[in-house]
Write a structure and sequence with these properties.
Layout: H1 9-62, E1 70-73, E2 77-82, E3 87-93, E4 103-107, E5 125-127, H2 133-137, E6 144-151, E7 167-172, E8 184-188, E9 191-197, E10 200-206, E11 220-223, E12 245-248, E13 257-266, E14 269-278
Antiparallel strand pairs: 1-2, 2-9, 3-4, 3-8, 4-7, 5-6, 5-8, 6-7, 9-10, 10-11, 12-13, 13-14
């Protein structure tokens, strides 16, 4: 009778050990692959989020009234505020103090559809030659005046395109303190602020005020997972390098510019995105 052959207990133990080692190797490889993929997805999401908010802020700041940037904050919240430029034009006649005249002659303004600017609908202001933020926000400096009326030499209605010389007349509250070397006039009505607090970025809209508002609540949520460490006083240009907003004064070699630096973190991944924003508009 032929003897039956099989595995001994020792051989079975060896096989189980080998299978376990192979299984652990495969599991480790799969775990590393899944982890790398997860980190890649997280980093890509952080890059997308950081790119979106920084580009959005840069586009808005770039079209701001010249020298309207100002920064305020503490260790809990940092805000950068600016005045979006709605219209820019050139004036041909500007009332200067101490004259009592309040009529400004400007080149007619229209959008791509030839729709005329209507100041009375939005309580807009005219800005002329602001050299620092106080010129924009402090009405007593007479660098900005509220527009109360708009007319032309045609039918008197600024909304119609019937002025032969394309020069319209704005009636403002008072005369201006200085004229612009480039005869530039800007029109705007309110402010925009971006604030970093509680590891998030919020967008706020407001009115022109002498003192900058430090928003501690409200606003529209624009981004999350912010990792910046906020200094106690970002308005001082010697503030911490990790502050999200910094303003650099002009020099002999360059114009003034705003630096936006946001750090995002999630699942152990950190991405920092910095953008230097130059305002092409000039006073």
């Amino acid at each position: 009778m032929k003897a039956q052959q099989g595995f001994t207990l020792l051989e079975l133990v060896f096989v189980l050990i080998i299978v376990a080692i192979v299984g652990v190797g495969i599991t480790s490889f799969m775990r590393a692959t899944v982890l790398q993929y997860s980190q890649f997805i997280t980093r890509s999401q952080l890059m997308d989020d950081s790119s979106f908010i920084v580009e959005r802020m840069a586009r808005e700041i770039k079209h701001a009234i010249p020298n309207s940037i100002r920064i305020r904050g503490n260790s809990s919240a940092h805000c950068v505020e600016f005045v979006p430029n709605k219209w820019a034009t050139t004036y041909t006649m500007l009332p200067m103090q101490p004259t009592a005249s309040t009529q400004v002659d400007v080149v007619r303004m229209a959008d791509i559809n030839n729709m005329m600017f209507m100041p009375l609908m939005n309580a807009d202001y005219a800005f002329v030659y602001p050299l620092e933020s106080a010129d924009v926000y402090d009405a007593s400096r007479n660098k900005r005046q509220m527009i109360s009326a708009c007319s032309d030499d045609g039918d008197g209605n600024c909304a119609t395109d019937d002025d032969a010389d394309q020069i319209i007349q704005l009636t403002v509250a008072d005369s201006f303190a200085e004229s612009s070397p480039a005869s530039r006039l800007y029109i705007a009505s309110g402010t925009v602020s971006y604030c970093v607090r509680n590891n998030q970025v919020y967008r706020h809209t407001g009115t022109l005020a002498t003192t900058q508002t430090l928003y501690t609540s409200g606003g529209t949520l624009m981004a999350q997972n912010i990792a910046n460490t906020l200094s106690a006083d970002p308005s001082a240009q010697t503030g911490a390098s990790d502050d999200p907003f910094r303003w650099y004064d002009m020099s002999l070699r360059r114009n003034a510019y705003t630096r936006v630096l946001l750090s995002f973190t999630a699942n152990g991944q950190t991405v920092s995105f910095m953008h230097e924003v130059h305002i092409p508009n000039v006073p």
